[in-house]
Amino acid sequence: MDSLIGLVNRLQRACTALGDYGGESANALPTLWESLPSVVVLGGQSSGKSSVLESIVGRDFLPRGSGIVTRRPLVLQLHKTESEDGASAQEYAEFMHAPRKRFTDYAAVRKEIEDETARVTGPGRNVSPVPIHLSIYSPNVVNLTLMDLPGLTKNAVDGQPESIVTEIEAMVRSYVEKPNSIILAISPANQDIATSDAIKMAREVDPTGERTWGVLTKLDLMDKGTNALDVLEGRSYRLQHPWIGVVNRSQQDINKNTDMMSARRREREFFSSSPEYSHLSSRMGSEYLAKQLSKYLEQVIKSRIPGIQSLINSSIDNLESELDTLGRPIAGDAGAQLYSILELCRAFDHVFKSHLDGGRTGGERVYQTFDQKLPAALKRLPFDKHLSMQNVRKIVAEADGYQPHLIAPEQGYRRLIESALVLLRGPAEAVVDEVHFVLRDLIRQSINETVELKRFPTLQAEIAAAATRALEAFRDDSKKLATRLVDMEASYLTVEFFRNLPVQAAAPEPEVKGTTARVKNALGIDRYTDNSLRTIGSNVSAYINMVCDNLKNSIPKAVAHCQVREAKRSLLDGFYTNVGGRDSKELGRLLDEDPTLMSRRKAAGQRLDLLKRARDEIDAVGWGK
Ligand code: GDP
Ligand code: MG
């Protein structure tokens, strides 16, 4: 049975070592602390809380003074020791924050509590919910874990901020309202029980009184002729556990350094010799209180263990799956880092490709550019204006110079066509740019959709930058090729087209073709008549239309070849070469994770370790077997 309290002691210490002391806010990690039963001391300032604790321990070790002395919870774990040969073992105290340092001098323990309080609460006189753990190993104690809390108070003193009153109340409440805490409600007998701070709060958090133990202190200080039998016999305020009265050392005893052992003896005498209380004397006093609490705590622990075990198991499952989503930490050597980086790049590349190849949106935007935007842009070109009669006349006349053309205005045709083809460069370049923007968007989108990358904002940014740089190079290539396709059209005209031209000038005879038509054509046209100019204009327009049809096909091929295919094939090639040359430190920087995520993983990992350890500890005790 002893081992059950020992088990909870170990679990509580592990909790504090790993930052689990309950009271965490939303999205917090599962807490083991809150499920562990413990005895919490509750009472108003100067009601005698510290004195009760000290007489349970049988030692004088808690800080004293006026004002709010206890400003952090003190978890006091009492371990009963026995030496091998049965002789009484050495007695010592140990703090969890200073392991392996054994205190045998209780004045030093008190000093350490004061220093450790200040260390966390700072130089001001604030309160903190982070507990101090003190273990006392002694043959004179019972196995018990007790928690001393700051006293409930009405006024701040000593320059303590006013807010301290509500802060303490909130902190104390957070401890006593947990269904697993056993409340040791301390009330002084020389004060009306109806005004007891301890009973007031205990009643709020434990209305049925099933986990509240009423302790009445200062019985020796009651006015002559009055007694506390109404309280002690449960008539004033009924609790499910019987009230226990105690007599602690008075301030004078403390000043005189009366030792705890003689104080206990005097307490026994007080009850046995008192005419009012002698019939209760076997159920009164600090020693009795300590034994009862220890027994009760064991019983509670035993009943809670199955619940604790199932809580631990489900918390372990939850944390493990959370850690899976957060991703495991990456090893520190360059090989593992490089491997991880390449894996992450591949994951990104996969998402990006599935945008282009279908499965995700994006690929169809490239096709739209080819299928709709390019033809529309070509259509919008101002060929009408370029081939107006006036402009045709001007260009043909300039090309002829002093010598009018004899058969057909060869030079005029060329100049008209060449200057029209220049206009096609605009749409060609626009397609290239448009596809570039689509691809850039897809990179951004793919970066966001690559869940694995979310952990690594630096790497994310570098991949995005490298991919965008690669796209820019593809765009430059593509632009060169697309404008070259346009320029090629200008460097060699399709002779065939002109050979096959129908006669249009003089004649509404579109059926007449071939040599006859050409001759007729040539002979039939007068220089610079409106008719002939109109014919020239419409011939050039037809030729340009044919070129546009060609380009509608060939520009998408060029763009797909230089931009889309390259993006699929070698988007991150430059990045791979670059990363390959970096050392472990630089790679580590790339794998710098989002700090909030890193700390969450760390915290979750620690909590997981704690829970696993707790599970093993509980299994090892083999409770109830
Ligand atoms: P806390 O503020 O609740 O921790 O109260 P303390 O334990 O520090 O006690 C406050 C004062 O009351 C101290 O001077 C104690 O000596 C005194 N005191 C506590 N309990 C008793 C008691 O049962 N009898 C007498 N005579 N004095 C007590
Ligand atoms: Mg105190």
Helix fraction? 55-70%
Relative strand content: 5-15%
In terms of quaternary structure, the protein is: single chain
Q: What gap, in angstroms, lies between the N and C termini?
A: 11 Å
**What is the rounded Rg?**
46 Å
Please give a structural write-up.
This protein is α/β, with parallel strands linked by helices and 625 residues long. The chain has two domains: 34-307, Rossmann fold, CATH 3.40.50; 334-592, Dynamin, middle domain (Four Helix Bundle (Hemerythrin (Met), subunit A), Up-down Bundle). Helix content is 57%, strand content 8%. The chain contains 22 helices and nine strands. It has helices spanning 2-17, 49-57, 106-121, 163-176, 197-205, 229-232, 251-255, 260-273, 286-326, 334-356, 363-379, 383-386, 389-400, 410-422, 425-449, 457-491, 495-499, 514-524, 530-570, 573-580, 584-590, 595-621; strands spanning 38-43, 74-80, 92-95, 98-103, 132-138, 144-148, 181-188, 212-217, 244-245. A nine-stranded mixed beta sheet has the order 4-3-5-2-6-1-7-8-9, sandwiched between helices. A hairpin with a 2-residue loop joins β3 (92-95) and β4. α15 runs antiparallel to α16 and α16 (457-491) runs antiparallel to α19. The chain is rod-shaped, with a radius of gyration of 46 Å. Mean pLDDT is 86; it is low at 504-526. Bound molecules: guanosine-5'-diphosphate and magnesium ion (MG). Residues 49-50, 69-70, 151 line the site of magnesium ion. Residues 43, 45-51, 64, 151, 217-218, 220-221, 247-251, 254 line the site of guanosine-5'-diphosphate. GO terms for molecular function: GTP binding; GTPase activity; microtubule binding. InterPro entries: Dynamin, Dynamin_GTPase, Dynamin_GTPase_CS, Dynamin_N, Dynamin_stalk, G_DYNAMIN_dom, GED, GED_dom. It is found in: Cytoplasm.
